[in-house]
Each structure stands twice: as C-alpha cells, then as structure tokens.
Amino acid sequence: MSELLAPAGNIEALDAAIGEGADAVYLGLKSFNARLRTSNFAWNQFEAAVSSLHRQNKKIYVTVNTVSEERDLERLYRFLSYLNKIGPDGLIVQDLGVIRMCQEFFPNLELHGSTQMNVESAAGVNLLSKAGLKRVVVARELGLEEIKYIKSHTNAELEIFVHGALCVSESGLCLFSSFLGGKSANRGMCTQACRRFYTVDSESDGEKQGYYFSPCDLQLIEQIPDLMQLGVESFKIEGRMKSAEYVGSVVAAYRYLMDNWEKDKKGSLATAKRMLSTDFARAKTSYWYNFKTNEEGVDKAGSLILNPDQAGGTGIYLGKISLFEQASDEAKEKAREAAGPDANPEDYKITMVHLSGGSYDPEVGDSIRLHRQDDSGRVSHKVRTVITDEKGRRFIDIPLGFKRGDSVYLLQTKAMSKRYPRVLPSDIGKYRQQPGAEVLPVLDLTPVAKNELSYFPEGLYIQVSTISDLYQAISKNPVRMIVEFNSETRVDLLEKKTKLPLSKKQIIISLDPYCPASKEEQLASDLNALIEDGFSTFVVNNIGHISMLRGKKANMIAGPYLYTFNRWAASWFENQNIGAFITPLENSWDNLKMTWEENVRSRVLVTVYAYPALFRMRFRLPESYDFLYFKDKEETLFKVSSTVDGSVVMPEAPFSIADKVDLLNNDGFKRILLDFSRTKVTRQELKMISTSMIKKQPVPDSSRFNWRNGFYSLEKMEIYKAMNEKAEAEKQAGITRSPARGKSRANDQRRGGKGGRSYNEGKKRHR
C-alpha cells in the first residue's frame, strides 16, 4: 500500500494531516531546510512529535534539503547528531556532503534523496541507492511513462509529488532568487521570482505585462490509481507554508481515493475531486503526466503549466480596493485583541476598505491575502470587522500599507475551520534535547597525485554551445574547449562528424543538468559513441551521468550543478572517482577559499564569466510567448531562449569576475572558465573580457552574483540590525560612533560596473 505523506509546516497542520489520515508527515526545524520562511518546529515540539507519532504507528521525516557552505558544517554536524538521538524515520537531503557525513558518523539515519537533488532517471536513482539512500523523491517534471520506466529499473523506493505548488524551473536548478539578492532556493530562501509580474517586449503587441512564469498547481488525483498499481511507495503533498485547513482538505481527498478506488473507481474519484474543490489554490495541471514521449511534452507542457493572466498567489478573487474608511475605535480594539498581548503594535494598525469586482463578500473570520498592484509584496490577514455604510457598501478591515487598485483574494472561509485531536501532548516539558557542542572531525581532501589531472591542465577554458562558436573562441588559445552537448552539437558530433579545429583530447563535453528517464537510454548510447570516437573527458551535471560513465574510459569533472559548496560534498565525489570540479555559480570568494585548501586548488575550475541559467524549463514556451526580452519592476533586463531542448531564462547583463583572475591565480586557482553557453561568441566580447583581465577592471554592466557577499544570511542581517540599533542608542545618549556599514541585499545589486542594463538599452544576440 502506498504511503500518503503530508506537509506539517506548523503544529496545527500536523494535527490536520494526522487527523485526516496521513500515514506520514514531513517537517523542518529551524535550519537546513528548504522552507525557512515557514514557522517550523522548535526542538521540544519536534521531539514530542516523534514520540507521539511513533505511538500511533505513523512516520515522521525531517527536511535537511539545503546546501551547506563550509562555515555551516560544524552546526550541521551537531544537528545531525541531534537527529540521530531523536530518531525520525528519515531525513530528506539535498547536499551530498550530508550523505557523506552520515555515511561516516551516523549510518543508522535513513536517508531520502530530495527532489532538489534533480534526479529523474533510473541511473540517478540507482547511484543514490548504492550510496545508501533508501528512497528518492524524483523530480516533478516527469510523466507516468517515465515513472514506470524508473520503477521497473530500480529497487529503491520512489516518492513523487502529487499535489501542490510547482516550480517553473527544473527541480533543484533555479538560480533566479539567488541572482536577485542572494536568497537561494538551494538554501531555503526562495523569493519565488517565477510568481512575479513582468513586462515583456512582444513582437506582435509591443509591451505587455503578466505573470509569465507563474506555474499552475499540480493535481494528480486522477493518476493515483495508475501510480498505486505501479507500486510507487509514497505520494507527497506539497505545502509546508499552507494553512492547516488546506492540508486537512487535501489529505482527506487523497486518503478517500486511495482507500476506495478499487471498489468504485469512478465514484470515489468524483468524490475526491469534489473534496479538492475547496483548496482555494491556483488553477490545476497534471503537467507532464499525460505525455507519451519527451518530444510531445516539450511541445505541449508549457501551455498546460503557464498562464500569464494568472496572478502569482492563491485564492479566490475578491476584487480590488476601491474605497477607504477610517477604522472605528471598536474595530481597532477587535484588531488589538485578535493580535494578542505580545504582538507588535504595527500588527493591529488597520483601515477599512471596500472591494469592487469580486463575486464573494468576505465575512468575519475569513482569511484573505492582499497583493500590492506593483507586485512589491503580499500579506495574509484574517478579517476581524465587517461594516456597512449608509449606501449599503460593505467595508472590511485590512492592515495598513495598501492602496486603491491592490487586489484581494480569499484563502479560506471561517466555515472551513475544523478542530482536530492534538498530536502533541499538552505538557512537553520533559522533551529537552537540543543539538550539543560536538566538534566535527577534520576532513582533508586527497592531495593531487603526479599526472593525476593530465586531462585538466592549468589555464583558460572556454565553454560554447555550437561548433561555429568553437571556431570563434579558439582565437583566445584556451588550454581546453568545453562543448555543450545539445540537440545541435549532437548532430554535428555524432551524425555529420563535423570537422573540429582541435583534437578530441582538447575538447571536453558538457552534459545537460536535466537527465529525464525518457532520454537516458539514448544518452547512454550517445556517450558510448562519443567515447568510441575519441572524446575522453566529460563535465557531469547530474547524478545519472556518473552512473552512465562509470567503468568507461572517461574522465569526469563534477560540473557547477553538482553543488560542491563544502569539502564533504567534494569528498563524496572523490569516492565516485571524480577528482576535478567546476564550482557552483552561486559560490562566494570566501567560501571558495574555505572549501578548497591550497594543496587541492588544482582540482578546481572557477567560472569568471557567464550568463547564468536562472530558470531552466523542460518545455518550449507557448506560441503566444513571442518575446525574447522581459524586465522586472526594477527595470532589470532578462532574455529567454526556447528550443527543442527546453527553455532557459538568463540575465542580459553577464556575471563577471574576470578582473579577479590575477587574484585567483595568486591564491592557487589557476584554472578559469569563460562560459558562453546559449550565447553567441563575438570577438568584441572576447576582447572586452581580455581587457578586464589585463587591466583588472570590471566588465561594464556586469553582475557579481554572490561572489562578494555570499548567500543572504538571516544571521548576518540580525547582526547588522543589532549593531545599527546599538549605534543609534549611543547616538541618542550622546556617544559619537560610526554605525555599522551593513547593506541590505535588496539594495546591493552587486554590479561590477555601472549596474544592470535597463529594458530599452542594447540587447545582446542570443540563441
């Protein structure tokens, strides 16, 4: 029998999930999980939950599904040691360093591979299974036939998402939020750039606006019988940031169908779908599940998942704010009482508004969400007061800070509220365990042996996407050229046998980070053909690639999408006989030096120039998306490429630290990469980069990404805030000192030159 796995973002959602019949829940604690913006569980609450659920024969899984920098490792080790003592039923992990650490110190912890690991092939699942993982949460961009293929080619347990929000980007490969301000999806800080309002430069209609990359929600209620017959072990509901009411209603629907479909498939499905009709979420899609081939999905999935007119949020549209009314003393008092004695006074400052254009009048107790018209923010709020003026117009209370024209949505009605038995005992005072002060043992990476890296010489590397660009780029005399393996280069290399300007030993083949089950047999065959033809070195960007190349006469370089943000992750790859690495594009200078000590820096290739893939989408964009460029509300310009290999969103302004090449070389990083993937190589741009290197001057209009400041850190922001508050207090007291100079990441664009290009400035040619 398949397991029904529900989210528990807070105690109320935990009660709802178990109360409606979930077999297991997954939750996060205060760190190392991909939903840091939800409330999560305190230590004693988590310990009590494990104890209570085990008494009910229910399971509980903990999300440890973020990547860790080197500075995080001591805290990570203590966290894993704590979990080892408490004994949850499994850890959902992304960072290969976590797997390596658990192998070394906590072998009794059961590990499940997170969907953030970007596993969508039997080859990838099997590699993780051999590494000791019991279960893999496969990528969400898979169809029924692909799930069937993976299931028939592995003994590992499979977990799949069946309901809830989707990412428009391929699982674990989104860099957009991180690029905009260091808030990385790989660190649990995603700001949902896909849900934002963008302005596009349409070929047919000129400037248009819409939610062009905001995906519909996944709903696979109709596919559940087929998936159960396949033997999929766990059905996962997304929603750790959702309300208890949402969790309860969705769990109830899937529970009902799973228990009754064999007796009455048609009737039970109809009942389950009616139960789901009140989840108040976005429009639904089955996404990739109805496609028989990869080509069919690439052509059609975009129109199933995207709708520019669909607002990025959830809920039933209630209308726009049209009128304001000052709140009465009685309304203010109700707001204060509802906020509670410990609330900040700002939490109960309200105004009264009238809504126009909706079809439902909210009542006291209903939960709503307000969207600012400029897409600068969204706020959830529970209605506390409803009044009707002398003209019969209804006004409801809302927080301050909204304007006429802002939209309001209904999240749930008071009538939907339901009380469930509490999972946690009333007294949790006896649960007192917390992470301790253990010291992480030192891990040294393997020093480079003589002639070990003959395929990985010092010097300049250039990556391109076409053979014609390969000819253009060799003018810079790189020690190696890296060629992206895509539909176009596959034809050139394997079918046409196009003449190359370099020997095959000097050309490295870079593999696409998305490796779906429907294409893995063809890819495995292509890799064998490339090796037989004389190519010997490959950049692997997916776990499945390692499995395909293992045992072959091939050198493997761990690419930027196999995230090596710490030495424990690098050590895991060393155990897979991989000794060379391209650092992740999100990495910072400080973390780069901390991870790679001087005696192993010859293992590392550092990207100093690139157009990062911010969204990587498995599908072509719909035909109505007749634009190449779009901008956000800050006027930052982005470009989009859509081909038979899928779609990619990139910044118009490149990431560049080309002026730091001497710094890198002097510190032992003597392999540098210029990455022109998906971008046409021009002599003018090559000359500009060379000038930057020689003169040590930033490339104009370029971004530093996270090179200088690293990832956004709540801890850093709290320190800056405390320092500034102290300085202000001293100023008030007459003590003269300079305030802290910490900058908000939102205001620091990390530009190497003049800043990001505006929408109407020159637009670069691209593929």
Short description:
Helix content is 29%, strand content 20%. It has 767 residues and is α/β, with parallel strands linked by helices.
Structural class: alpha/beta
Which runs of at least 5 residues are low in confidence (pLDDT < 50)? Answer: 737-762
Strand content: 15-25%
Give the strand order of the largest sheet, numbering strands 1, 2, ... along the chain.
1-2-3-4-5-6-7-11
Mean pLDDT: 90
Helix content: 25-40%
Radius of gyration from the alpha-carbon trace, in angstroms: 27 Å
Count of individual beta strands: 32
Number of helical elements: 21
Shape: globular
Question: How is the quaternary structure best described?
Answer: single chain
Largest sheet: 8 strands, parallel, barrel
- How far from one another are the termini? 48 Å
Give a description of the structure.
With 767 residues, the protein is of the alpha/beta class. 29% of the residues lie in helices and 20% in strands. The protein contains 21 helices and 32 strands. Strands 1-2-3-4-5-6-7-11 form an 8-stranded parallel β-barrel, surrounded by 5 helices. Helix 18 links the parallel strand 25 (580-582) and strand 26 (604-610). Helix 3 (73-86) crosses helix 4 and helix 4 (96-105) crosses helix 17 (567-574). The longest helix is centred in the C-terminal third of the chain and has 19 residues, at 714-732. It is globular, with a radius of gyration of 27 Å. The two termini are 48 Å apart.
